[in-house]
Amino acid sequence: MKLQNEAWRHRKRRSREEVKRLIDEFEASESDRAEFCRSQGLALRTLQRHLRARRPESAVEEVEAGCEFAFKPVVAHSTNRSSPR
């Protein structure tokens, strides 16, 4: 356990250029996410976070456009019982 903690303390933050390079390499590779992360010493969650951040806005808009919701106006009913029905 002590070795894991020491390794974690010495790990440096990746630069934007390094993250971009890793994402480019992943997209060009034929590896699945877990295999790629093991080969690069990268946490799977880290790769997923950067892939999601890199996803173009148009992809998000396409997903949202595919979701159709039926909105019905809400009609308030009167609670006044003195009026005839």
Descriptive overview:
By secondary structure, this protein is mostly helical. The chain has a domain at 2-57. The chain is 60% helix and 0% strand. The chain has helices spanning 2-10, 16-28, 33-40, 44-54, 57-66. It is elongated. The protein starts with a helix and ends in a 19-residue tail after the last helix. The mean pLDDT is 76.
Descriptors:
85 residues, 5 helices, mainly alpha, single chain, elongated, 0% strand
Structural class: mainly alpha
Strand percentage: under 5%
**Helical content (DSSP H or I, runs of 4+):** 55-70%
Characterize the overall form.
elongated
Largest sheet, in brief, is: none
Query: What is the number of E strands?
Result: 0
* Distance linking N and C termini: 76 Å
- Average pLDDT confidence is 76
Q: Low-confidence runs (pLDDT<50, min 5 residues)?
A: none
The radius of gyration is 25 Å
Helix and strand succession? HHHHH
Q: Report the total helices.
A: 5
Topology:
Layout: H1 2-10, H2 16-28, H3 33-40, H4 44-54, H5 57-66
Short description:
The protein is mainly alpha-helical.
